[in-house]
UniProtKB/TrEMBL annotation:
Chain segments annotated as coiled-coil in the UniProt record: none
Organism: Neobacillus bataviensis
Transmembrane segments: 6-23, 30-50, 96-122, 142-161, 173-197, 203-236
Signal peptide: none
InterPro entries with a match to the protein in the record: GatZ_KbaZ_carbometab, PTS_IIC_man
One CC-aspect GO term: plasma membrane
Alphabetical UniProt keywords: Cell membrane, Membrane, Phosphotransferase system, Sugar transport, Transmembrane, Transmembrane helix, Transport
Subcellular compartments: Cell membrane
Membrane topology term: Multi-pass membrane protein
Single biological process term from Gene Ontology: phosphoenolpyruvate-dependent sugar phosphotransferase system
Record-given protein name: PTS system mannose-specific IIC component/fructoselysine and glucoselysine-specific PTS system IIC component
């Protein structure tokens, strides 16, 4: 059990750090974390199913600027491990994942505040021209993030889901409600920011076409994507090539 806890904690910490220092390859998503944890727990299929379920819940959740959303990495890793360990159903898995992610969110905020110390240290080393000191400041901050993810998952796995849910239940309701509402707003805010940066009047009609299909005709997301692919194909086929008159 201890070995499993260490391996699961390593999975969570490594995929988190990969997305921060190795480039964003989306390895820190539930659909990736779930199967990896399932492989360690000896039940890859259940891990894949749980990862897919949690991905549907959190696929629109994104950290924007200084906001810190619920910790998807810790929530996914721990919930998958505990669900496989206890044989929990989908509802129970959600009941585990969401409180764990909220509790880990508080820890992540604390680590971010702590890391400002190392950021200021690196700033001071820049003024001194000490490049080694700059590296120490930057990597120490990264180490804090790695250790926080590792320890949260390992300790959570060892103590079990009941203790975690009990801790979350003692968090004041007004704080939990505020975090939940801010989490609901983040996906809309992220889409609005992307639109502000990338919207082109030339292609705006396609955006509104997709909106109309979903809003008025109840087309699913996959259906809207298929319509989008068809529009892209037609646009490519009928777009005048260089040297052509029409």
């Amino acid at each position: 059990m201890v070995i499993q806890g260490i391996l699961i904690a390593l999975i969570a910490a490594v995929v988190y750090m990969e997305s921060r220092i190795g480039g964003q390859h989306m390895l820190d998503r539930p659909i990736i974390i779930g199967p990896l944890v399932g492989l360690v727990m000896g039940d890859f299929q259940t891990g894949l199913i749980i990862g897919g379920e949690l991905e549907l819940v959190w696929m629109g959740l994104v950290g924007i600027g200084t906001s810190t959303p619920p910790d998807v990495v810790v929530g996914s890793a721990l919930a998958t491990a505990l669900a496989i360990q206890t044989g929990a159903d989908y509802q129970t898995t959600l009941a585990l994942a969401i409180p764990i992610a909220l509790l880990a969110q508080f820890v992540a905020i604390g680590v971010a505040i702590l890391n400002t110390t190392f950021a200021h240290y690196a700033d001071n080393q820049i003024a001194k021209g000490d490049w080694k000191g700059i590296s120490i400041g930057n990597w120490t901050g990264s180490l804090m993030y790695f250790l926080s993810k590792f320890l949260m998952v390992f300790i959570g796995f060892m103590v079990g889901g009941d203790v975690i849910k009990g801790i979350v239940n003692h968090i004041p309701h007004v704080i939990q409600a505020g975090l939940a509402q801010s989490g609901n707003l983040l996906p809309a805010l992220g889409i609005a920011m992307l639109m502000q940066l990338s919207l082109d009047k030339k292609y705006a009609a396609f955006l509104f076409l997709g909106f109309a299909l979903v809003a008025f005709f109840n087309i699913s997301t996959i259906g809207a994507a298929i319509f989008g692919a068809i529009c892209a194909y037609l646009y490519y086929q009928f777009k005048p090539r260089e040297g052509e008159l029409f």
